Amino acid sequence: MTSETRYMRSDIDSGSIYKLGTSQTSSSLAVLIGSGTSGIVYVGIRVYVQHADGSKTEITSGSAVAIVSMGTGVGYTTTLSATWACPQISLASTDKILVEVYGELSVNPPTVLRRSFITEQLGASQLDAVTWTVYYRIQRIRVYEEVWVYTWFFLHGTSTDNSRIGNFTWSIPSVGGGILVQII
Q1: What are the domain boundaries of the chain?
Q2: Would you say the pTM of this structure is higher than 0.70?
Q3: How far apart are CA 1 and CA 133, in angstroms?
Q4: Which regions of 15-129 does DSSP assign to beta strands (E)?
Q5: What residues in the chain have per-residue pLDDT under 70?
Q6: How far is Cα 76 from Cα 65, in angstroms, rounded to an integer?
């Protein structure tokens, strides 16, 4: 069993999918979640197994989980966290885990995809049934334009803007356990 922290990095795996790696990068990236004069933003994830042929199977139940929220107020940047009970899922050794971050103003659970992150091929036989802790770095900016306007961003990619998943746990196939028989 391997339990690790997986970091939402700023380097690209392929296309527009960023790496979900075991170390952090040194460049911070931001993506807009929402903007308005009032409301609460919600941010969460959906999780998939991505197979070698490019197809994917969702592990979450069709909507975002591990949801955090941030309302209006003075502008600041903070890290919010929430948990998700990852079920035990069988994997092929060539499978990758794809984590999509959703964020939206005044919609819970959020339905707008903001960023995608993917692991390397894990060489694992399963994702283990454990509770993940998902950390989101959220920035809120407040600007006065005849009324207060709030803008929220999701940040990732550095040890400061450290969006990540804790207790990401998987297992490799066990070897042995059989009986050796020698025929004479």
Answers
A1: 2-171
A2: yes
A3: 18
A4: 17-21, 29-36, 41-50, 56-58, 65-70, 76-86, 89-90, 96-105, 113-118, 126-127
A5: 174-184
A6: 24
